[in-house]
Protein: glucose 1-dehydrogenase [NAD(P)(+)]
Amino acid sequence: MYPDLKGKTVIITGAATGIGKACALRFGQEQANVVINFHSDKQVKETEEMIKEIKNSGGNAIAVQGDVTKEGDIKQLIEKTISEFGSLDIMINNAGIENEVPSHELTLDDWNKVISTNLTGQFLGCREAIDYFLEHDIQGAVINMSSVHEIIPWPHFVHYAASKGGIKLMTQTLALEYAPKRIRINSIAPGAINTPINAEKFSDPKQKEGVLKLIPMGYIGEPEEIAATAVWLASNQASYVTGLTLIADGGMTLYPGFQAGKG
Structure:
């Protein structure tokens, strides 16, 4: 637990499912004020249940619907946060999408959808949070959700890999630019995580076995393990950490093909 997070206000985009949901619930356990951003009308019930759970944990929460690719929606997200909780301390840009397409068949529309959500959406979240921190002299924290595919090439997912590679240098550049203001900007790069976006893949024993061969620790991670890295990065325990990509992947980026002296 991180006592300094109690009463802090955190926005988490794409927080209705998966890693975003786990982050929201964990910050609730830290007794923070949690703003759950969600996209689809189908997620309203889920966010209502999350709010109840967070309040039962001793935190507070609201849900704000919005599209992270729309500048106006991000501005409104910040405004509703301030209106409800009076301030903003932590911004977690988590919303992301992916789809598998051979690169020579990838349409410009598909490319733009992924880049707009995964990269432009995160930039807008960064920009608006940093602008608020500067205006109110807050030494805030920004956490961007990246992926091991900011490092590992991923055929059939060129738009996704490009977006995550962009997040890496965006995070580092912003961290360098705003370090003198003590605004910390980091990212997390999860590996294979048991989330709804991966549910179909992991339900197939052959596909799951193939993924497990890529993970030296031998198991697929849980969203709560990524949430644990997020609360640490947001806390004062990481006060001297900025510009970092914290890789949480069970060793996937360690060239598992060379395990046991192979190669």
